[in-house]
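Aim 2 progress update. The chain analyzed this quarter is reproduced below.
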Amino acid sequence: MAIQVGQTAPEFSLFNTNKEQVALSSLRGQKVVLLFFPAAFTGVCTKELCSVRDGITDYNNVNARVFGISTDTVFSLGKFKEEQNLNFDLLSDYNKDVTALYGASYETFVLGMTGTAKRSAFVIDENGVIKYAEVLESAGDLPNFENIMSALK
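Predicted structure tokens:
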């Protein structure tokens, strides 16, 4: 099922790289950006997340919390976050439940992998309503960051 602008964001709880649970419901009252990405340590994913790192002030200026989500383990995400000096949380959807819930998973990805996260972006307002949704079919494409910022303002 595709997530639609205007619907309430599906609830989830995932672990971050500090092994702390982050529940979407605990973020009510804040704007949230969810960036699903296929795999840590890959070229396009590194480019995407480092561009967010370098522009985090733009997100902070509109009081938005950014989360990267992949089906990697918390351990590999922790190493990736450390090596890239990422200044926002990465969440592990190792069981692939949230990725599927948001309609952001490949049935089959490279090398026969299944359930891998599609590169996707969702903006959620302070009331938990989806304001922007973009699910990309090509892992080589990047989300439209101008549209993300417009949805946040």
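The first strand starts at residue 13 and ends at 16. The chain has one domain: 13-152. These observations will guide the mutagenesis experiments scheduled for the next reporting period.
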